[in-house]
């Protein structure tokens, strides 16, 4: 097989031109880091924060399932529908479930979003957060059971093997992930 050498109008090979541009960009970035020592901290904070947001986004997407299931069940029971109509209304359950998840997640982080809360405003926000946590934990525990056996059987013979640790981790991340992201943002906010 024959190799064809292509040259640009200025006489350099295209690959060399890209290599030179890349080397120049790396050198410029290295100079920037030498001049501004906090630049590396900013890059690290950016990577940590957006990595955490990506993980939390995936967890929230996974957490959508209990809300969709609950909304589909509630719609079906409220309207007393047969299975064919229930299947047709699943997209509505998805929309209602998404709205419910957003409302609950906002309720959980609402106290953290207050700029300068007075006692009464903070008490109201904390009450909203407690209700949101109650709803979220009820749905999470019913969708991802923390025990592999019934609660009665676990109380009678408590064995560590009967605990579903993966579900417990999912429940904890689901419940406290949004709050952790807000706190991480406040902590790293000074770095950005």
Describe this structure in words.
This protein has one domain. The chain has 192 residues and is mainly α. 10% of the residues are buried. The mean pLDDT is 81. The chain is elongated and about 75 Å long. The longest helix has 42 residues, at 38-79. 78% of the residues lie in helices and 0% in strands. It has helices at residues 14-35, 38-79, 83-88, 90-113, 119-143, 151-156, 165-188.
What descriptive keywords fit this protein?
7 helices, elongated, single chain, mainly alpha, 192 residues
Q: In terms of per-residue confidence, which ranges show pLDDT below 50 for 5 or more consecutive residues?
A: none
Mean pLDDT: 81
Sequence of secondary-structure elements: HHHHHHH
Q: What Rg do the Cα atoms give?
A: 26 Å
Structural class of the helix and strand makeup?
mainly alpha
Q: What separation lies between the terminal Cα atoms?
A: 53 Å
Categorize the overall geometry. Answer: elongated
Strand content: under 5%
Helix tally?
A: 7
Number of strands: 0
- Describe the largest sheet: none
Please indicate the count of domains.
1
Helix content: over 70%
Question: Would you spell out the secondary-structure blueprint of this structure?
Answer:
Elements lengths: L13 H22 L2 H42 L3 H6 L1 H24 L5 H25 L7 H6 L8 H24 L4
Helix pairs in contact: 2-4, 2-5, 2-7, 4-5, 4-7, 5-7
Structure described in brief:
The protein is mainly α. It is built from 7 helices and no strands.
């Amino acid at each position: 097989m024959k190799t064809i050498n292509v040259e640009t109008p200025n006489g350099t090979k295209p690959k060399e031109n890209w290599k030179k541009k890349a080397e120049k960009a790396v050198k410029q970035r290295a100079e920037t880091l030498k001049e501004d020592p906090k630049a590396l901290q900013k890059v690290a904070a950016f990577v940590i924060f957006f990595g955490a947001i990506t993980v939390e986004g995936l967890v929230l997407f996974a957490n959508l399932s209990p809300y969709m299931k609950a909304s589909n069940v509630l719609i079906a029971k409220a309207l007393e529908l047969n299975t064919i109509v229930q299947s047709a209304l699943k997209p509505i359950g998805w929309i209602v479930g998404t709205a419910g998840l957003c409302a609950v997640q906002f309720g959980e982080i609402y106290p953290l979003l207050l700029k300068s809360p007075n006692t009464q405003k903070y008490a109201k926000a904390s009450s909203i957060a407690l209700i949101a946590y109650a709803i979220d934990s009820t749905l999470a525990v019913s969708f991802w059971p923390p025990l592999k056996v019934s609660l009665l059987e676990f109380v009678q013979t408590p064995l560590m093997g009967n605990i579903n640790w993966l579900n417990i981790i999912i429940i904890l991340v689901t419940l406290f992930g949004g709050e952790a992201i807000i706190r991480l943002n406040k902590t790293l906010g000074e770095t950005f």
